[in-house]
Amino acid sequence: MTQNAAPALEAFVARAAGHGAALAETGLPTRRVEAWRYTPLRSIADTAWQKPAPLTAETTTALLDRLVLPETGARVVYGNGQFMDALSALPEVVRQASENVSPLKGLFSATLNTALGERGLDVRVPAGTDAGLLTLVSLSDGQDVSTHLQHRIVLEDGASLTLYDISTGEGRYIANPRFDIVVGKGATLRHVKVQRESLTGTHLAIVSADVAEKGEYDSFTLNQGSGLARHEAVVTLGAPHAMAHVNGVQIVDGQRLNDLTSMIHHAAPDGSSRQTVKTVLSDAGQGVFQGKILVDRVAQKTDGYQMNQALLLSEKAQINSKPELEIYADDVKCSHGATVGALDDEQLFYLRSRGIAEADARDMLVRAFLIDALDLVSDEGLRDLLLRSMTS
Amino acid sequence: MSDFLKIQGLQARIDADGTPKDILKGLDLEVPKGEIHAIMGPNGSGKSTLSYVLAGRDDYEVTGGSATFKGQDLLALEPEERAALGLFLAFQSPVELPGVNNANFLRTAVNAVRRARGEAELDAVAFLKAVRAETKHLSMSDDMLKRAVNVGFSGGEKKRNEVLQMRLLQPSFAILDETDSGLDIDALRIVAEGVNSLRSPDFSALVITHHQRLLDYIVPDRVHVMAHGRIIHSGGPDIAKTLEKQGYTQFLEAAA
């Protein structure tokens, strides 16, 4: 089932010192592991991934320059897994936290992160406080190196925070961040993520969010980089009237593979979840969407919605889409849909007959396809940043 | 008189479930500069195919003949190049474009054509001014600019949106493919007014219709009768009235 002899695994376990037992046991998943069937990790198996050297000032500036960043709000920068003090400032209302979190058993990205974890953002937003916008920049640079940041974000009751989470890098590396998120009663975390890793980079992110009564985890992920990227979200609605949005857009070209995997767990009554994921594929790009919605027996009156759509712009592009509903309650409203299609020739001709060049007409239709997912980002400023990021 | 639109022996076919079906079978037609011509003909005579072939839709295969516009080989041009050259097709069934804002679409089209014609692009303010003037003429609400192109538009609104595009793109040759279908009399009058207001020595049009009714409002210089993929008869505007009264039979028999 797993590649226990892989050089990558040996290197990881050696680096983990005393914390590598679970990782050694889990191993590096092969395609025979259901969760990784469409996202092979072959490309990372044969490298003994090492801890990177600190990022130089020059590289930091160069990498920051290529990102579309908000001009307002607080900013925290990590370079090669290390906190960059001179470039960082937390919002005033935010306090450093020291929460212990559950280990997310059985998920490779989490197991790897747990074994090698580096201290990341560790914040707590006090009750009833709006902490505004916080930008988290994660930069990587190096050859055959890996980082495993552990971020913890706790919103106390009634608190709110908008997190703009953006990552990029240069070289051949693995970025394996983990977010442990606790959303208190009536609290709201808006998590807008932009993944723009290097084409030879690998991105394996895992988000675990626990949402309390009337709390809301509102997320949007733009997967638009990396040779291989999986963004995996595990959201637990553990108290009544909790809400989750797990939306995303994937833009996959070249030989890249981008993957959005999610598990929304309705563990209490009256919860609601919304999920719209759109993937645009060109060249020999591969897209993966795996979306599971689990509704416990106690989670009556759950309202779930999931839609995933893919637009194939070339014959070599490929989408693997796996919606999965597992429902044990008998009074729920859960709908889901999936579509795969190409650009509409009639629409294309209509635009061209109005003088719009073919390439521009295609761009217009691709953007039109993505727009209803993007419109789900409630913050107008961030929505504009996403649009700019998508076209840069 | 220099050639404006000149079609000679045009043949075209479409792939119908794997078997090619000939639709245009040697069509000849000339529309001089400054004239409005009408084409009438029974269903299946190839009227819409002619308009699509002229506009450059690539699911039709041209198997013979030629079509020139302003002396250029029209059939060798991309659809967007034909638009830049001054050709405009008002669609019989305008396509819906969910997610494409109508105002953005119009501005993109106008500026694409202006660029191609060597004219300066319109900025947002100048464009809005131009578009507002036109929508007022066409009794269109501002709301229609804010919505997605043709999405949720009634039949009449779609046709008015076509005429709006025509007015903004300022073509020198417009093809109106059954623009009157599904229009009530008020909408018909507005659409006809939109076409008539473009009438000038530099503007020509080809009005494709089933009904003589539209030709009461857009009075053509000549009327052509089309059947079986060819023009079988041409004459003055009075032909339309004959057709309305007596049908196509006499023309079909005469051509047989």
UniProtKB/TrEMBL annotation, chain B:
Which keywords describe this protein according to UniProt?
Answer: ATP-binding, Nucleotide-binding
Q: Which CDD domains match?
A: ABC_FeS_Assembly
* Family matches, as InterPro entries: AAA+_ATPase, ABC_transporter-like_ATP-bd, FeS-cluster_ATPase_SufC, P-loop_NTPase
Keyword Nucleotide-binding tagged: yes
Please report a single Pfam family linked to this protein: ABC_tran
Please indicate if the UniProt record lists ATP-binding as a keyword. Answer: yes
Any single GO molecular-function term of the entry would be: ATP hydrolysis activity
Which residues are in the ABC transporter domain?
5-253
Listed name of the protein: ABC transporter ATP-binding protein
